[in-house]
Prior knowledge:
The chain is an all-alpha fold.
Amino acid sequence: MVCLRFNEALVQKGTARLSVGEVLRRLRVLQAELADHDQEQVERSSLDAVIAELVNETLINHKDKGVRAYTACCLADILRLCAPDAPYTPSQLNSIFELFVSQLKGLTGPEMPYYAQAFYLLESLSQVKSIVLMADLSNGHVLTIELFRVFFEIATPEQPRNVIISMVDILAQLIDESAMLPSKVIDMIFSQFTGLGSKTSHPFTLKIERPPAYIMAKQLCNICAERLQRYVCQYFTDIVFEANRSIDENFQVELDEVMLQDVEKAHRLVYELYVASPPILENVMPQLEQELMAENVTFRLLSTSTISEMLSVKEQKIDFTKEYPSLWKSWLSRGNDKSPVIRIKWLEGLFNVLVNFSYSTEVMATVVEGILAKYVDVDEKVRMTVCKMLGSLDYCTVREKIPSNVLDVLSDRSKDRKQVVRIEAMHCLGKLYNMAYNDISLIFLSLENLNATTEWFSLIPSRILHTIYINDKEINILLESVLYEYILDYMEIDDTKRTQRMLVMYKNLDSRAKQAFLSLGRNQSKYVKIAEYYLGICEKYNGGVISDNEKRILSSLNDAITRLKSLYGDPVKAELDFEKFSRLNDRRLYKLLKDCMNLSNDYKQILKSQKEFLKRIEQVSSALVGTFKFFVFKISPMLYNKSVISPIIEYTRFNKNMLADTARELLKEISLIQPSVYKAHVTEISFLIKEHNIESNISCTDTLKVYAQFISSFPQDISTDPRLLEAVTSFALRGSPSESKQAVCILLHSINKEKVLHDLIEEVFNDLCVSSLYFLTKLSALSQLVLYAPDEMELKADQYTSFLIKEVLLVNLISEESNDEDWVDDNVLEDECKAKILALKILVNRLRANMNADGVQQLAKPVFRLLASIMTNMGEISKERNTPLRFQSHIRLVAGRLLLKLSSLSVFEEIISVEDFYKMALLVQDPCFQVRYNFVKKLMKYLNLDKLTARYYIPIFLIAHEPEEEFKQEVVRWIKSCVSVSRNRETFTLEYSIVRFIHFLAHHPDFSTDVDDLIDFAKYINFYLELLATSDSLSLLFHLVQRIKQFYDLISPENSDRLYVLSDLSQALIRIMAMSNSWTIQIYPKKLKLPSELYAILTNPKIASEIAKRVYVDKDIEERLVSFTKFSRLVKKRKSVVEKIELVKKIEPVKKRLSKNTSKSQKKLENTVAPLRRSRRVLQAVNYVENGDDDEMTDEIISNDGSIESEIEVDSLDSDKMEKE
């Protein structure tokens, strides 16, 4: 034991006082000696003198900071040396700890005076734990509050780590030793969490830098979790209880603003405490669970939101779902909450779980199930949130955590009925593709195998482009915006990168998406014409200052604006915007728009013009930006411009990234749509032709087609290079049939056409026989020579016609086999069948080439008879009837398509009889799926291009019995698109077609009056009505089918009863539809004529009256009709089917007397000749295999209007004649 050596007085007795310097010296000496002594090594009695002097008021309250600082250090050492018993009275301890607290304020920073003494004091209190003495003092609460306040204030980022540790240790000792912590202390601790600001609305909490005060509070909560649990629970309970009490009387009442802020603050605290120290919330979690079931929406929302945020915490070692299973289950039930706001917050929680890698597989499966359910939520905001949340994820998370079925449903939302959902879904898909593009492009570099999810990303452009078939203008605007911004990255100015991106995208498109994509490029030239017309009128309009022809210019301006506004979902706003633009009379804007459309500009120039135009128009009127941004995209050659040609040719030549085939396909497409962009690159294309090895397996067809298309449009730019001429001639005579076709076209546009033509004809006819080496190539060349050089070829017409019929068409070198397939693809089809197909094309091309010649109709009759015979005999063309089935299928398909091609020419359309037309129409129900599919596709294409008359819509509706559902739905979508276009133009072409359709059904080979057969035929009519009938058109349709009974069948008068049966059948179906939809069948104000080539008016009044009164369909059939319509469930809810139909009949414009069919009419139907051919409606399912051209997007249906007093003849798309009754 040692004794304290210090023996100087610290406090001078009497009036004499020690100087400040002396006091400081003595305190330093004392503090140094006390610091050197360890506890239990110093003689207790030797400390008595200094113990008494150190608590003297003179030292503790000395005016000098240094004196107080050293006094505090000495007192801390005394408490250390005397521990565990403090040598002071409670009153003295109060003064001592007041001194301690004041001195600890000096820890603000190292620059503070006496910082070392303050740190010494802090370290002593922490290590000796003498701070616990403060808890039992009379002013302990006040000192505790002050100490907490001081420590939280001086906790700064610059503070050394050991200072923070000591402060936490001291505060933790106080918490553990205090019987009851002051409420202000609890508030200070919690304020470190709630003072961070509101929780972020983003579901995936970002890692943020926390202040030292927060870290101290977090450490305290973890160290003293058990002691603080009750304070947290009490804090939360008090606030929630007070809020509950204010709404006890009415749970629908909203909390006042102050109370709501308090409740939100309490829930924010719970979340932050969960992040910092989950164990501290042990008593709060059950209260959160109770809130989830509360009646008040505010409490359910706050608790749901709080738990959703908790699920985002990744730093925790605990699994929320396992630690709080009951709470997790209750929270999951909020997915079905009646409030959409709560369901949205719940969704955020699901995505928090999804991106949190700490949860189990079972939990992830539950989350995915919940997300899928909310994709089809009744509230559009919920559906939108799903898309928005998915779009906020990073690429790695989506690739690794999101299953493909979730992504599939996302693509479905791009077709949502609500615009806000579609926008989010489409932008989300675009963002995902943009993020995944680098991985997708690796497919073509063969650098790695992609997982299933990444492969799904490559299909995103197809999913987006499919929305074009919805035929909604708002969707189309959104589609193009997403396509250019995310999929094609239109802001990329590197031509090679941008072109590669387009090629990669195009290669992954499915057939429907390709057609949609190609339609964008094909339609661009149409919009350019409209834009040029509009700009020309704007210049003449001159901002409203018109010098002459004012009325004509105003009319032209209105016409141009009417065309332009039809592109927009909101035509009213578009019209106002285009009118406002015309009044601006800004010539610079006109110039910039023209620069955007100019095909001679490269992409950088186009992009620069776009940016300047949009910037300038925003300065003039920001309200115009939305309308004109879409307009600029529509008229600019964003896809096909001169800048993409060189990169595409490079990909074609060197097969970079395995994209040569795709590049050739796009080269061909560009040549068809924008051949002028090749002007600067014609040399490169000709080089491709010259360097191509004709013996290689790689086809040069597309390249030849590009060049042929270019020189057809710009014959003045054709090359005179003899090497090129030699290469093209070689392709014409020794290339593949498709290469020969394009090569001949090029040769016929050459400068030396006459010499080349003579030599070419001689070469083709030289040794023209079935066994010759290049027989198919010569036939292909012959088909083009016949078409483009008719005068020269007519001299040899008898020679090649006789050869084709006798040695090619009527002779089968390959005969039918027992196991013969009904279809094979073109690439494995035998040359003999290909020769027969080319022979038919040559015969038809001869007619096309001579369409304006005298006597062409007589020339055409044998060809039409041949084509009709092929279809009548199901493709059998040989007298021996030994043609293989696969040949027959291809031949009858080609015959049907050639008839369509001839029908597009008015001179030949007149030759096609009704009987031949009906034979051709039955190809829609051909036993071979590929024949049906390819014929219908060609038919739809010609109808889209408005090349056919109205009667060609009739075969389309035979698709009603199509067994391949996917193909049927594709056709249904096309019909709906046509109907939409027709209604937008206020025409009724398709509705008028019902009388033609019924006439065709009456001549269908399957028709009979057997009840089951009639039900089958009713399905045709019902299919037609479901697609076309509306409350507005129902009266027209009913009037048309009624009018049939005032006519007889001009084609086959003895079978007119068939028409009347189908008329009554149609009327019954229309009545069922009207009844189920609560529609009224009103009297149609016009009296319509029926097509004069099909129907003739009944001239005998007695017979006409008898037919009008007779009912050709029994009641039991009418009852069966209800069962297969989609309205059956609605109808069955009524009292009686027959009773309701009778009720409807009472209000029909023509009253009928009910009677059974007469025996005479029945005998007429029974004695009809049995059909030569019956369709096969139940066919084996097959995959789509398409040959030939695809359909294009719906273009335009011609409108025909008439006055109310007129009598309209339902005739054709071209001319709906109107006559006075």
